[in-house]
Amino acid sequence: PAYPGDLGPGDVLVAPITDPSWTPLFVPVEAVVVDTGGQMSHAVIVSRELGLPCVVSVTGATATIADGTLLEVDGTAGTVRILE
Q1: Can you list the pairs that 32-38 forms with residues at least 24 positions away whose Cβ atoms lie under 8 Å?
Q2: 42: domain CATH number?
Q3: Given this model, what pLDDT does residue 84 score?
């Protein structure tokens, strides 16, 4: 969604970077994709605690993935696939 308050079930949070102020946005989503980050980044830690798949260091994700794009996010494999 174009506005953070519009995030809900079935949505994937795609962000340039996250910090603690982003934490409430993780709660309603199904997965998280971030342009930057590492294994101990905020996005990874919060996603793990919430049981969400998360892939970080996806350079250009925010520039490439348009609002409404159907994605497959595999946190174990570290892959993000555009389905449509």
Answers
A1: 32/73, 33/58, 33/61, 33/65, 33/71, 33/73, 33/80, 34/58, 34/61, 35/59, 35/60, 35/61, 35/62
A2: 3.50.30.10
A3: 77
* Predicted confidence (pLDDT) per residue in 49-79, tens digit: 999 999 999 999 999 999 999 999 999 999 9
Total domains present in the chain: 1
Which domain range does residue 68 map to?
A: 9-82
CA 32 from centre of chain: 2
Q: Which residues are catalytic?
A: 42
Position 1 scores a pLDDT of 62
Question: Model pTM?
Answer: 0.93
pLDDT at position 14 over 70: yes
Burial of 80 (0-12, 13-18, 19+ CB in 10 A): buried
